[in-house]
């Protein structure tokens, strides 16, 4: 409900409401972009592009579900466009700016092996894993963001996890 009110205010010209939306979702979008690119400066640029595109097209937005999902759709498309322009090259990994997490999985998540393993997955599987485990999204939400059916989303999650497991076993992480 809060997002709906903020969006209406933004559409009426309230720039403070736009700042509130950006502050609310910046870390989630940056984290997603970082996990897609494994580069802090590229992730920051792509995150900025997400919010610039939001500001440009917010007046056309019609509330049809979770606004957060709408932002992830924009982020996914911008990351996809980045790779289409630059080619599918994983850039140097800068672990200093990896977003903090408070779990035991933190050490593994921040390790170069995990980031490289995740980066080696096809985008369709990487997206599902990032959204499911790093952004705690339900499979139905992920299917909306990726534009795939629920069954396809489940299949991509399983295939991606199987590939990650093989890579991580090969690297002696487990």
Structure, described:
The longest helix is centred in the first third of the chain and has 23 residues, at 15-37. The protein is globular. It has 174 residues and is mainly alpha-helical. It has nine helices and no strands.
What is this structure, in a nutshell?
The protein is mainly α.
Helix content: over 70%
Q: Strand portion, in percent?
A: under 5%
Which geometry do the CA atoms define? globular
Distance between the termini: 43 Å
From N to C, what is the helix and strand string? HHHHHHHHH
What's the rounded overall pLDDT mean? 84
Q: What composes the largest sheet? A: none
Tell me the number of strands: 0
Radius of gyration: 17 Å
The total count of helices amounts to 9
Structural class designation = mainly alpha
List keywords for this structure.
174 residues; mainly alpha; globular
Protein topology:
Elements: H1 2-11, H2 15-37, H3 40-57, H4 67-86, H5 106-110, H6 112-119, H7 123-134, H8 139-146, H9 150-170
């Amino acid at each position: 409900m809060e997002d709906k009110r903020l969006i209406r205010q933004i559409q009426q010209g309230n720039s403070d409401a736009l700042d509130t939306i950006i502050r609310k979702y910046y870390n989630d979008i940056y984290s997603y972009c970082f996990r897609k690119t494994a580069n802090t400066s590229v992730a920051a640029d792509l995150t900025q592009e997400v919010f610039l595109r939001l500001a440009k097209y917010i007046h056309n937005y019609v509330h049809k579900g979770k606004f957060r999902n709408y932002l992830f759709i924009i982020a996914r498309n911008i990351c996809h466009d980045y790779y289409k322009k630059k080619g599918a090259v994983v850039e140097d990994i800068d672990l200093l700016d990896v977003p903090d997490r408070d779990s035991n999985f933190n050490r593994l998540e921040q390790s170069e092996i995990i980031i490289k393993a995740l980066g080696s997955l096809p985008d369709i599987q990487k997206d599902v894993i990032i959204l499911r485990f790093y952004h705690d999204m339900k499979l139905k939400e992920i299917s909306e963001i990726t534009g795939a059916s629920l069954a396809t989303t489940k299949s991509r999650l399983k295939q991606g996890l199987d590939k990650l497991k093989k890579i991580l076993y090969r690297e002696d992480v487990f």
